[in-house]
Design a protein that fits this description.
GO terms for molecular function: hydroxyacylglutathione hydrolase activity; metal ion binding. By secondary structure, the chain is of the alpha/beta class. It has one domain (45-294): Metallo-beta-lactamase, Chain A (4-Layer Sandwich), CATH 3.60.15.10. It is 41% helix and 22% strand. It is globular. The chain binds zinc ion. Zinc ion binds at residues 104, 106, 109, 158, 179.
């Protein structure tokens, strides 16, 4: 190799090194900044909706799993023929099903427990009247699904054994509300009073963080909006109306914060609703709204 060639190589290397230096200087602050601002944290909590009796009672079971520990639970698996294939797929994928969880004892929520238990020998966690119940968690007690933290919230009224389950995985929050809270509505007062529903919705569930996603026991949103529009008009109700017209499923798409705006049963202090019901006390407004909805 001649001296000229070696010199040429050196110059080319120096030029390339300085170019590389410029590129690193130019882009590294952005790279470092983007890493600090948006850390890549894999989401561990997965919620799979399983529609049941679609077109008639439009129930939902939910298969909740934790990616970190491969633990999974099934919430309200009322119709085994529609649920079992999903459970099999999940366990075939390496997950361990640890619990059946029920929101209340009604047949279209807890009616599948016996059949599911034949295939999976796991405990039933739920209200005191649920089939095969092994444990009824007390109000505000906590348990876990792998790394997901669960808080049981007693919300009696639709039934006396109604329990909602609040799940937290870091910044990811969800509440499974059975027939207590629906998107834009609430369950019928089969075993309870307007006072109990007022407490369940507007004290217990309303106290959850506003960004908590709501997963109810039924897809009833279209009917709920139809009633809401008769008694109240606001932007949130218009938005919910548009969404439910365009989308068949609404579970997990709205939050507790949204419910406070578009759910008339969570707006019992709204002057327009006081006017339309002719009541001022929030419990009386709740009772009057439920009667109007039942008769609509
Ligand atoms: Zn029910």
């Amino acid at each position: 190799m001649t001296l000229t060639t070696t010199l040429r190589h050196c110059i080319v290397t120096i030029v390339l090194m300085s170019l590389l230096g410029t590129v690193i200087k130019r882009y590294s602050p952005t790279l470092i900044r983007s890493r600090i601002v948006k850390p890549v944290t894999p989401r561990a909590m997965h919620i799979q909706s399983i529609p049941m009796w679609e077109g008639s009672s439009n129930n939902y079971a939910y298969l909740v799993s934790d990616d970190k520990t491969k633990e999974a639970v099934i919430i309200d698996p009322a119709n085994p023929s529609e649920v079992l294939p999903h459970l099999k797929a999940k366990t075939d994928a390496g997950f361990k099903l640890s619990k059946i969880i029920n929101t209340h004892h009604h047949h279209d929520h807890a009616g599948g427990n016996k059949e599911i238990s034949k295939s999976y020998d796991i405990p039933v966690i739920g209200g005191r009247d649920c089939a095969l119940v092994a444990e009824t968690p007390s109000h505000k007690s906590k348990f876990s699904i792998g790394s997901i933290n669960v808080t049981a919230l007693h919300t009696p009224c639709h039934t006396q054994d109604s329990i909602c389950y609040f799940l937290e995985d870091g910044q990811d929050r969800a509440v499974f509300t059975g027939d207590t809270l629906f998107i834009g509505g609430c369950g019928r007062f089969f075993e309870g009073t307007p006072e109990q529903m007022h407490k369940s919705l507007n004290q217990v569930l309303a106290a959850l963080p506003d960004d908590t996603k709501v997963y109810p026991g039924h897809e009833y949103t279209k009917g709920n909006v139809k009633f809401a529009k008769k008694v109240l008009s606001n932007d949130a109700i218009t938005k919910l109306d548009e969404y439910s017209q365009a989308n068949k499923e609404t579970q997990g798409k709205f939050t507790i914060g949204d419910e406070k705006k578009h759910n008339v049963f969570m707006r019992v202090d709204d002057p327009e609703l006081q006017k339309v019901t002719g009541k001022t006390d929030p419990v009386d407004v709740m009772g009057a709204l439920r009667t109007m909805k039942d008769n609509s």
